[in-house]
Amino acid sequence: MKKTKILLIGSGGQLGSELTQGLWKIYGQQNVIASDIKDAQGILKEGPYEKFDVMQRDRLFELIKKHEITQIYHLAALLSATGEKDPRWAWKLNMESLLFVLEAAYELKLHKVYWPSSIAAFGPTTPKQNTPQHTIMDPTTVYGITKLAGELWCEYYFRRYGVDVRSLRYPGLIGYKTLPGGGTTDYAVDIYFKALKEKKYECFLAADT
Ligand SMILES: NC(=O)c1ccc[n+]([C@@H]2O[C@H](COP(=O)([O-])OP(=O)(O)OC[C@H]3O[C@@H](n4cnc5c(N)ncnc54)[C@H](O)[C@@H]3O)[C@@H](O)[C@H]2O)c1
Question: What is the Cα–Cα distance from 171 to 169, expressed in whole angstroms?
Answer without folding.
Answer: 7
